[in-house]
From TrEMBL:
Pfam families: Ala_racemase_N. It comes from Bauldia litoralis. This is Predicted amino acid racemase. One of its GO terms (cellular component) is cytosol. It comes from the Bacteria. Keywords: Isomerase, Pyridoxal phosphate. Its cofactor is pyridoxal 5'-phosphate.
């Protein structure tokens, strides 16, 4: 089988998604399965839907279009603020989009009218992470404006935390989102049917200690399903597989070399400095995988193997006291950032395993 490749165990992904769906269902929270890291893979979308997610969410309309072309008929939400240049595509292929800008909602309204459709809107609220979101003081005005647009249905409000600034979802900011939903209901008479509290970073709050869920009735989960860990501290989630996706690379050189470079030392191709410690001769292998393929800083090597460095196309590892044969393979675990980069790379094959 070709390398480098991602080996994707669909049954483990389905198990992870089903486990989280059931745990959150007991708390009155539905799960939107986030497909952006999979580039809209129909196989992963199918695994998420079989696990019981209420719909699919993606940040790229191109991925949503790919899933539609593959026959995926589930409700789909564009979870990144729409680009004005894509509003026609968005109302054609996405049922709902997350929004913060009046001009964009107006354009979605016009596109929906022209297409003879209605389009759902979730207004995103800024709760401190300083990525997307309407300031709370401006929310009521934006809700009233949104309600006036034809062919637009206001579904509810949402928030996003822990992505840009690492702000932790907790009782305080989640209570604020619930309070805002109550306030909007009272002020406008329009019930917020969706209150989307956030992403995988919300799991500790939602499941960890019997927190008052309030109005929060939806979470958008990607990393926790695909990698079996929570993103605040990257700790494994009990009962989930952390090896549903692995990255396999092939050895293209295996030699004993000094551990310390010689000659005049300047910056490497990526602005780094070589280590100066001399560990003596080591068994060094080079793998056909580099920074052009993935975030090499986000890889975890198997026991007995140490990542020494990387360039665009080469990953250099120490294999302890033994040589890895040329043509041999090494499997790595990935962080979410490394997974997204590897999925995006045209040089990394994707192998879907259906046996579990």
């Amino acid at each position: 089988m070709t390398a480098p490749r991602l080996e994707i165990d669909l049954e483990k992904i389905r198990h992870n998604a089903h486990t989280l769906v059931q745990r959150l269902k007991a708390r009155g929270i539905s799960v939107t399965g986030v497909s952006k890291a999979s580039l809209g893979s129909p196989d992963i979308a199918d695994a998420l839907l079989r696990a019981g997610v209420s719909g699919l969410g993606d940040s790229r309309i191109e991925n949503i279009e790919a899933m539609r072309r593959a026959g995926i008929a589930a409700p789909m939400t564009l979870i990144r603020s729409p680009m004005l240049s894509q509003t026609r595509r968005i109302v054609t292929f996405a049922d709902v989009s997350f929004n913060t800008e009046r001009d964009v909602i107006a354009a979605l309204s016009r596109a929906a009218q022209q297409a003879g459709r209605t389009h759902g809107i979730v207004l995103m609220v800024e709760l401190g992470d300083l990525r997307e979101g309407i300031m709370p003081a401006d929310l009521e005005r934006t809700v009233c404006e949104t309600l006036r647009f034809p062919n637009i249905v206001l579904k509810g409000i949402g928030s996003n935390l822990a992505c840009r600034s690492g702000v932790v979802p907790d009782a305080r900011n989640m209570s604020e989102l619930s309070r805002l939903a109550d306030s909007i209901d009272a002020a406008t008479g329009s019930v917020m049917t969706v209150v989307s509290g956030g992403n995988s970073a919300n799991l500790e709050w939602a499941l960890g200690g019997g927190a008052d869920i309030g109005r929060i009735n939806n979470l958008r989960l990607g990393e926790s399903i695909l990698l079996g860990c929570e993103p605040l501290h990257r700790r494994p989630i009990e009962g989930l597989f952390t090896d549903a996706i692995t990255l396999i690379a092939e050895t293209i050189e295996s030699k004993t070399k000094p551990s310390r470079p010689w000659g005049t030392i300047a910056q490497s191709a990526f602005g780094e400095r070589a280590p100066t410690a001399d560990r003596g001769p080591i068994a060094q292998s080079i793998l056909a995988l580099g920074r052009q393929d993935t975030d090499t800083d986000g890889l975890t090597a198997p026991p007995g193997t140490e990542i020494l460095g990387a360039s665009s196309d080469h990953l250099i590892v120490s294999t302890g006291g033994r040589h890895k044969p040329v043509g041999g393979e090494i499997a790595f675990q990935l962080t979410y950032g490394a997974l997204v980069r590897a999925m995006t790379s045209p040089f990394v094959a994707k192998a879907f395993l259906k046996g579990g």
